Amino acid sequence: MKQIRAIFIHEWQQKRRSDLLTLLFITMQILLFIALLTAWGQFTHTLNQQQSAQTIVEQQWQQQPERHPHRVAHFGHFTFRPPSSLSFFDNGVNHFVGNAIYIEAHKQNSANFANIQDSDVLLRFSELSVANILLLCWPLLLIALAYNSMVTERETGTLRQLLSMNIPLTRLLIGKGLAYFVVSILFIFPTFICTFGLIAFSGLGFNVDTLLRIFTLFVLYLAYCSFWIGLILVISSVVKYSSQALNILIAIWFLLTIISPRLLADIAGESYPQLSRNAFNQQIKQAINQVGDSHNPDDPHFNDFKTKVLAQYGVNHIEELPVNYKALVIQEGERISSEIYTRLYQQQVEQLRKQQSMIASWYWINPYLLVRDISMALSATDVWHFYDFEQQTEAHRFARISQLNKIHAEHIEREHDSSSKADSTHWQDFERFEYQVPSLSFSLAPFKQVWFMPLLCFVLIGGVLFSKILRRRIYALA
Amino acid sequence: MHWLKFEVKLLLSSVVTRMTLLLVITCALFAIKFGENALQQQQQAQAQSQSKFEQTLTQYQKQAPLPTAGHLGYYLFGATQWQLSPWSALFIGQSQTAYADMPVRALALQGQIYTQEMLNPNQQKAGRLDLGFVFIYLMPLLLGALAVTTLSDERQANRWRILNSLVKAGTGLIWRRLILCGLLVLGLSYSLLVLAVLWLNLNLNEIFWWLICALALYISFWSLVIALIICLGKNSVFNTFSFVSVWLTITILLPASIQLYLNHQYQDHPALAATLEQRMIMNNGWDAPPQKAFQQFIQLYPQYQNFELPEASGSWPWYYAQQHLSDVQVNHQWQQYLQQSESRFETLKALSWLSPSLQLQLNVNHLAGSDGESYLHYLKSIDNYHQEIREYLYQHLYTDNKMNQHSLPQFPRYHSQQVQSVNWSGLLKLVVLILVLLIFFDWQRKKLPEY
């Protein structure tokens, strides 16, 4: 233990002496805080904007005068997706997806108003967020700090001396690794404290769930740092010259963080293609037409439906029904379109799930991908949270339109359908759309099958780091 | 020429260099293939939309009785196409993310124009791979890997002193080696460009020659950056780090910071405001007397003032008049959206002075007609087409001329316009930057220590 402590202190003091590294460390910290505070500003702005827009549309809905319920169904409504409380830490895919959906009768619209205007040019490496700095820039700084940690000992001849003094190689590696681990804690801890402070003192979404998410993110990023420290020490131990170590490490950084994510995403996209909006809409239209056309008096589906309704109410003609038959037909159409939309939407999501599984199969060799995805999931900004919003919206849309159809059936007479109106008090009985933020278990569900992969990665690096082969190589080079 | 053979052999002797070269070439091949597939799929989708539109129109012509103008305006969507240049397969810009075949009908434009394409946001976040990415982001790194330690390696291996004494001006050898690295990377870029041109059957037009010049300037810029780092006379590790830091700043940090700035500057969402307001105006119209809307409408279209609006509420003539009025009343927000987008592009262009990579990226996207400005132009052309559809229907809605076999095939077609201009002046910024760096270099190289 004493030896490890001595190695740790020596490594620590050596790095502290470098003005360039200290400057880089401070610059990166400043960058982190700028990213954090700017993102916080944007988060509160978007949150206020979304909340006020949701309030406006709810008021617009409730302030409607007496109207025909089907007209109200076409008047429609909007649902807004408020940014998650940790979106200022990791903005995930938020820049690329819309956050408002117009809901109306007969039709399912997708989220619009995404902020992607020039993202394709400016965000080729994603935005300047805390998560991206930790994922992309911090490993590079770790490389700068530690690439020569073992190789310099050899170049200067101190490694030979240390080994001749019977200092076990394992302790040397642990001592050095520990120094960089503490530096990593010092680097990321202030950001997490600020993240915690901003959420706790602003009172925006602070609860046990958020606390758990922040803690898990902290552990996740520390594990990510450990991966890089292990990797850097392995490379630094097996090469002959420090410049060689640096070149190899930068090449690995580039391959893991820049090249492979986009290459894999594009290969996955090609392997499991998604439908375009027009093709998707066309597919829905065709599927609905196959079931039946309510305007066609000879349509088998709607004739069956009519028979069932008449039997249900025990009457022979639609005129004898105690409810407006027209509204029942509209509701049947709504049920069909909603079912078809949900089924086809799920097929699209399934394609994306396959794409994601293809990428996930590389998690074990590229922890950047894993940490990036878990970080987005914990911040509730990944693609699955977005789809959850679209699905919650469709459920809300169906419930809202069904309620309107019920008013239509019960309060509008079939004989005077087009000239009748329902009382304005009905519009007060509708539930406001409140986006239900998914639980932590929902966020982490996509990683159930892959949780062991980082362990595998650690075992692999640990195995190499403390293996006999590495020890022999170090002794041979020393 | 013996020295050239020797120098090239020396350059390619390192395994890391050979691996990097292989990686860059592999990425380029994938990029061209992905670009080709994406463009083909997009063109197929556009052709399908067009043929679907023609098919529906033909079906309507066979229908008896013929559909009314009101019915046609409600159910028939005109097909539009964002006319992309074949070069957009290499420089994708927004071509793979924007809605490039937006259908449009005679109802209010503001309820349709902001629709987005269905995308995989994960793929977008990963950042797409195109040949532009290889040229703009990977080539400088390759150049850095080849050249940034040219002098420091010689010094660290203690060969510099000997070299300097053997050759008259030792530094000349270093600069010759750097130029050679630059030419090698440029040669590779040109080869990939020619390969892409042959692969995709692209024309050897002005765009090609523009790219030839732009790539030469861009590689010169990075060569000068490397030269300046070499001039500092530090060791290989320092040089490598300095280069990676400059690359990181120019290609990642500056564009991301500009994005943060633009988001902060343009926080208004006129598109959302227009949609919310348009919907309210349209719906309030249902509660007002139909004549009120029609009176306003004929002020805009006085040629239909003799038309007698049906008294019953919800008639097609009233409906289309009200739809148009809802568009007119939020027109200021639509104009604000267009102006804001244009102003955002202008600010972005102005800020691109800060990063040559961003400059080149913007320029190549513009060249390929896949940039934001081209998309905005497409949106404006949809606006015009929407007007053509409306006014075609008005002739039948507000007159006694009902739809007939002769007029139905006259339904307007969208005529795509490709916005493509070769902007030679776009290279000026790069030339200025290169000149500035050259002055610096000339000043710094004299300070280069002899040993």
Structure description:
The complex is a heterodimer of chains A (478) and B (451). Chain A has one domain. Chain A has 18 helices and two strands. Chain A has helices spanning 2-16, 19-62, 69-75, 119-122, 130-146, 151-155, 158-164, 169-202, 208-238, 242-271, 277-291, 300-313, 325-360, 367-378, 383-411, 440-444, 452-465, 468-477; strands spanning 77-80, 100-103. Chain A has a two-stranded antiparallel sheet. In chain A, helix 2 runs antiparallel to helix 5 (130-146) and helix 9 runs parallel beside helix 17. Chain A starts with a helix and ends with a helix. With 451 residues, chain B is mainly alpha-helical. Chain B has one domain (2-273, 327-445). Helix content of chain B is 68%, strand content 0%. Chain B contains 17 helices and no strands. In chain B, helix 8 runs antiparallel to helix 9 (206-231). The longest helix of chain B has 48 residues, at 15-62. Chains A and B meet through helix 2, helix 4, helix 5, helix 10 and helix 11 of A and helix 2, helix 4, helix 5, helix 10 and helix 11 of B.
Quick recap of the structure?
The complex is a heterodimer of chains A (478) and B (451). Chain A contains 18 helices and two strands.
The number of helices of chain B is 17
Q: What is the gyration radius of chain A calculated from CA atoms?
A: 30 Å
Helix fraction of chain A by DSSP (H/I, runs of at least 4): 55-70%
- Describe the sheet with the most strands of chain A: 2 strands, antiparallel
Strand content of chain A: under 5%
Helix/strand-derived category of chain A reads: mainly alpha
Low-confidence stretches of chain B: none
In the predicted model, the low-confidence regions of chain A spanning at least 5 consecutive residues are none
User: What general form of chain B does the structure show?
Assistant: elongated
- Range of helix content of chain B: 55-70%
